[in-house]
Amino acid sequence: MFVRSYASTLVGIEAIPVAVEVNISAGIGMYLVGLPDSAVKESQERIRSAFENSGFRMTGKRLVVNLAPADLRKEGSGYDLPIAVAILAAMGQIGSDRLGQYMMMGELSLDGTLKPVRGALPIAIRARKEGFRGLILPVENVREAAVVDGLEVIGAESLRQVAGFLSGTEMIRPATVPERTEFAATANRYEEDFSDVRGQTQVKRALEIAACGGHNVLMIGSPGSGKTMLARRMPSILPPLTLEEALETTKIHSVAGKLGAEEGLLLRRPFRAPHHLTSQVALVGGGTNPQPGEISLAHNGILFLDELPEFGRSVLEVLRQPLEEKRITVSRAKYSVEYPANFSLIASMNPCPCGYYNHPTKECVCGPGAVARYMNRISGPLLDRIDMHIEVTPVPFADMNNVQSGESSATIRERVIRVREVQARRFAGCEGVHTNAMMNAKMLREFCRLTPASSALLEKAMSRLDLSARAYDRIVKVARTIADMAGAADIAPNHIAEAINYRSLDRDSWGK
Question: Is 2-167 CATH 3.30.230.10?
Fold first, then answer.
């Protein structure tokens, strides 16, 4: 007897439908075909044990299981459930009438209970797109899949429960998610707040500019000056995620298996802070079983690299492409996947190995040339791609002892949202462009008009600082954001001057 059930496989962050075809004929043995990996092949033993412990019997005839399309590699243990259900239907132990209405995924324990799988959200989105009535998943995956409207999401605890549901002998209510208002209520709730920061007025101004325009920032300062504290508060001043951004961000975290059983739609912008011993693969993604890396997990949020020179040079160099293109393509001999990587890079570093170069009160003890060698750990092309270089000085005691709270994140966020709305209107006809930092050369000419005085000032800075063409673009983009914050249509000299001031590491005097 021939029966077909439906599952899905992940390619990048997208789900591809997979038909699980089972045929029982005369003979003996079980054969699993369709380019399965080791985890899929091992499903035979898990399914046999699950049958025995769930009260089902395994056929003694020849059993062929095909995972179509056969030229697409199938990975992971999530095919246990659709294979087991199709076998039961082929043996006539459960009804097969409802198999074509549901896509299903789940790993089987030896006792027949279901374990969670990765990628429930993109699988749910694909199931709805393909016209399935519903999706059957382990209960731990229900919350993330249930955010997809127009799809019945059935959460099951065991193979026996799924068999009963498909046979019509057991009722399982489709899962529901809390109201959108409940999600919205927690979207802007952060433990860290800019009101906790004492002093650092200039740095907070720079970070607000970066939040308004989506710019990358490098903070240089001595230990204890507040770099990490400021960086961790960046998500609290960014605009709330739109529904489209929230779905895309959640898909990435779902594919990477980073969502817990109690998490549904992510409505807080991600903040990823990998350790400086992180490998290239962990940062950009890939691996034997491809998964998104840290730069993709930071999509629509912040990637914070603390102690930037301590990262391996080869690790940092892989950031070049995603900083420019806002996506990363991982190519290997057997596969090529693309992950989105539209993040804002916030990095911090000490100015020298001892940490006290340019400190107002402590003396630097580094030897001759040590500062230059330390800075050379970060390549020029990477520094060029960072829009703003900010010097963070130690906070005076009077500011630290001030009992008055600083400006709150909510107040700053309101200003950021207003400036983002200006950019949204400006780039309404430009697909995939949402902030000033994402403008290409053509957009710079169209949207970044310089007055004669502004052009003359920038020309003088380019000549004196020996800036590259990329640095020119970055300065103009930052100046455009500063002008937007001031409500100006054109970029004035004071906007250019402030943007140039945020290029500390381009000065010849630095490190000498």
Answer: yes
Please, where in the chain does CATH 1.10.8 lie? 439-512
Cα torsion 284, 288, 289, 294 to 10°: value is: -20
CA nearest 138: which of 80, 90, 86?
Answer: 80
pLDDT mean by block of 10 residues, the chain; 512 residues? 92 92 90 92 94 90 93 90 95 87 96 94 94 94 88 94 92 75 61 84 93 95 90 92 88 86 77 93 85 93 94 91 89 80 94 87 87 88 90 77 77 94 91 89 88 91 85 92 93 93 71 54
Measure the CA–CA gap between 257 and 272, rounded to whole angstroms: 15
Select 439-512's CATH number: 2.60.40, 3.40.720, 1.25.40, 1.10.8.
1.10.8
Identify the CA nearest to 361 among candidates 230, 224, 229.
224
What phi and psi, each to the nearest 5 degrees, are found at residue 479?
Answer: -65, -35
Count of CB atoms situated within 10 Å of the CB of 159: 27
Q: What single DSSP character describes residue 432?
A: T
CB atoms < 10 A from the CB of 364, how many? 17
**Architecture label for domain 185-427:** 3-Layer(aba) Sandwich (3.40)
pTM of model > 0.70 = yes
